[in-house]
Amino acid sequence: MKRDSVECSNSSLDIGSNNSGISFGNSQNWNGIRFNVSDCEIKNINGINITFWNPKEVGNSNVNGLSIGLTPSAGNINGISIGGAVVAEGNMNGINLGILASVAEQNMTGINFGGLALVSQGSISGINFGGLAQVAENNLTGFNFGGLALVSKGEISGVNFGSLALVSNGAIEGISIGGLALVSEGNITGINLGGLALVTQGKISGINFGGLALVSNDEINGLNIGGLTVTNSSGIMGLNITAGLLQSEWKITGLSFAGYKTKAAELNGINISPIWSDIEELNGISIAGFNRITNVQTGITIGLVNFAEILHGIQIGLINIVENNPAPFKILPFFNANL
Question: Which pTM value belongs to this model?
Answer without folding.
Answer: 0.78
